[in-house]
Amino acid sequence: MTEQAKREPGRPTMKAVAQEAGVSTATVSYVLSGRAGGGPGVSEATVQRVRDAVERLGYRPNASARAVRTGRTGLIHLSLHMLSDPWSLAVAAAVNEAANEHGLTTMILADGDWYTALNAQRADVAYIDGLGGDRADAERKLSELVESGQRLVVFDERLEPNGFDVIRSDAIPGSRLAVEHLLERHTDIACLTTRTAYASTGESRYTVYRDALRQRGLPVREDRVAFFEDTQASAFTAAIELLSGYDRPTAIYATTDFAAIAVVNAAHRLGLRVPDAVSVIGVGNTPDARLVEPALSTVGPPDFYRRQARIIVDRALGRPARDDHGELHVFDWSLVVRESTAG
User: Fold this and answer.
1) Pairing mode, strands 251-254 and 165-168
2) 301: left (phi over 0), alpha (psi -120 to 50) or beta
3) What is the torsional sign of CA 326, 332, 333, 336?
4) pLDDT for residue 68
5) 255: which DSSP letter?
6) Angle CA(243)–CA(252)–CA(230) in degrees, nearest 5?
7) Which of 4, 48, 83, 96 lies deepest, with the highest CB count within 10 Å?
8) Local structure of 214: helix, strand or coil
9) Which is nearest to 319 in space by CA: 124, 29, 41?
10) Phi, psi torsion values for 210, nearest 5 degrees
11) Single pTM value for the model
């Protein structure tokens, strides 16, 4: 750190960062705006020097001043309906990492009331991972936010772009891959699912399981279906129920990764080896699926979290979609076979 930077009193300034990196304040502003890399005269080495200086000095841009000067807040809002789910945690981690590269701040809206929150505080972009039950009302609220100038990226399997980007990652084909994978070796397969999926009149992660068994001429037994709510504890309790007793299934298809991880933990609690006593597969391809012991087989879009984070950050930086009405980003699923079904 330069002697002058050490002598700067109070909060570090952009000027101090420029002096530390040996560049102009204009260059620092350009790098922190997220535009660096495509501008004339700003090399990757210079970008790295500026970022290193920012890190050493602990510089944080003044969000209020930037909003007045540029019309940007420096904020990314993430509306995540279930923070304990590894899927939500992975989304937040990936977006936060990508945002930090451009001096942006990530804020999580945990209660699901994204409409009220975004009317109260603007963001450079807001990501919404679920519209809730009243879709017509949700779509009306999305339109109002777009008309007010709010940039949006919405994760939804049916929604079409309408002034905002849509991330579409249809779980149904992937769920079929998961069930078919278990059917290659097993005929007694249980399902750990939600009551909403079970009661669905259309296709759901549960109906995929039910229909696949029927197509093979296998019975769909009520005692082979257990339900969990949006908590790890409920999934663990349901898994214990499925695995307790002598007449237990030889495989379990869980409709989320966090529920499948609960099955693995329940098997450990009961002294059952995975996959020798019971094979387990999940849905989502979350990072946590690699960390459980044994590693969890799952289905999901490859490299989903990093790719989605880049879309969100691009919109926060003002990089336009290819279509004025918004862009549809489709992520296809694949099967990832690991130790939990490989025995």
Assistant:
1) unpaired
2) beta
3) negative
4) 45
5) S
6) 85
7) 96
8) helix
9) 124
10) -60, -45
11) 0.73
Q: What CA–CA distance (Å, rounded) separates 312 from 166? A: 10
Q: φ, ψ for residue 168 (rounded to 5)?
A: -115, 125
Q: What is the dihedral of CA 170, 172, 174, 179, to 10 degrees?
A: 170
What pLDDT score was predicted for residue 18?
85
Strands 152-155 and 189-193: unpaired
- Return the sign of the alpha-carbon dihedral for residues 317, 329, 142, 299: negative
* Distance in angstroms (rounded) separating the CA atoms of residues 192 and 224: 8
Residues of the chain with pLDDT under 50: 6-8, 37-39, 64, 68-69
SS (H, E, C) 292-305: CCCCCEEEECCCHH
**Contacts by 16-25, CB closer than 8 A, 24 or more apart:** 16/57, 16/59, 17/50, 17/53, 17/54, 17/57, 17/59, 20/53, 20/56, 20/57, 21/46, 21/49, 21/50, 21/52, 21/53, 22/49, 23/49, 23/50
Those residues with Cβ within 8 angstroms of residue 221's Cβ, 6 or more apart along the chain or in another chain: none
Q: Can you tell me whether residue 334 is helix, strand or coil? A: strand
The per-residue pLDDT for 82 is 75
pLDDT given at position 21: 87
pLDDT at 269: 96
Tokens of 281: 């597969």
* 113-301-198-114 Cα dihedral, nearest 10 degrees: 0
The per-residue pLDDT for 7 is 47
Q: Are strands 334-336 and 75-79 parallel, antiparallel or unpaired?
A: unpaired
Residues making up the chain, counted from first to last? 343
Structural tokens at position 262 = 């609960």
Q: In this structure, what token pair is assigned to residue 118?
A: 């975004």
Q: CA neighbours within 13 Å on the CB side: how many for 158?
A: 9
Q: What is the DSSP code (8-state) at residue 340?
A: G
